[in-house]
Amino acid sequence: MKTKVNILFVCGYGVGSSVMLQSVVQKALKKYSFEFEMEHTAAGEVGGFTGWADIYAISKKLIDVVSLDAGHGQYLIPIENIMDGETIGRQINEVVEAHFPEIISRT
Asked: Dihedral (C-alpha) 96, 40, 4, 105: value to the nearest 10 degrees?
């Protein structure tokens, strides 16, 4: 049984915007009642995370780089504004509620 959700932040080169995105989203997710782990990577390195990541947060400009299968529990959050952690956090929470309800703490 899954106890946490794994979130991967993807940017063009894996060193700038994905790190900033991870930071702002981490703060926004503190108000939700589920455990998560986060990583960041470059678009060209996404393949190395396919067995790990449940949710991919990626710029709309880079969506063509990743190929995901929702049937295998991999979900995509298209990012428009990397500084909008609240909206991205809400989108992640919506995916968790819909597809990973077992990890939500009910206390």
From this structure: -60
Q: Under the phi-then-psi rule, with left for phi > 0, alpha for psi from -120 to 50, and beta for the rest, what region is 77?
A: beta
Summarised one tens digit per residue, pLDDT across range 92-105 is 999 999 999 999 98
Written as one string, the DSSP assignment of 30-72 is: TTSSB-EEEEEEEGGGGGGGTTT-SEEEEEGGGGGG----GGG
pLDDT score of 18:
79
Percentage of residues in the chain with pLDDT exceeding 70?
90
pLDDT exceeds 80 at position 69: no
Question: pTM (2 decimals)?
Answer: 0.90
End-to-end CA distance of the chain: 19
Q: Are strands 36-42 and 75-79 parallel, antiparallel or unpaired?
A: unpaired
Q: SS3 of 25, please?
A: helix
**Cβ–Cβ < 8 Å for 71, 21:** no
